[in-house]
Amino acid sequence: LRSQLQEAYTNLSALRVNMEQYYQDNRRYSSTTGGGTCGIPGGNVPTVQNLKYFTYSCASAGNTATGDQTFTVTATGTGPTANFVLDINESNVKTTQNTGSGWNLPAANCWITRKDGSC
Q1: Which residues of the chain have pLDDT under 70?
Q2: Rg (CA), the chain
Q3: Taking the alpha carbons of 90, 91, 93, 97 in that order, is the dihedral positive or negative?
Q4: pLDDT value of position 67
Q5: Bridging pattern class, strands 94-98 and 54-61
Q6: Are 5 and 110 within 8 A, CB to CB?
Q7: What pLDDT score was predicted for residue 94?
Q8: Residues near 40 by Cβ (< 8 Å), separated by ≥ 6?
């Protein structure tokens, strides 16, 4: 299970980099066309390769005259990783929102790596 969690760590980190690149080009996290969030026209589902244990979604907020200035990308576990919910935001704050059975939530903002709640 610990190795399956690695999928979320890798993809969330990559999606955060993609969001920052989008922000550099557009000075906003929301799409400039189609009303989408997180730079995704018409939606909020980021493109991720090799999905196996998680699904991904994105929400942008902080709407100003120049567009959304914050985002959160979330990985939600499926199959053996069901109930795990991890996310990352524009400030690179990594959080574990929920864990699987027998796993403790971490005390700090981080992505869980062990059953005892350590990061």
Answers
A1: 32-36, 41-44, 49, 66
A2: 15
A3: negative
A4: 74
A5: unpaired
A6: no
A7: 97
A8: 31, 46, 58
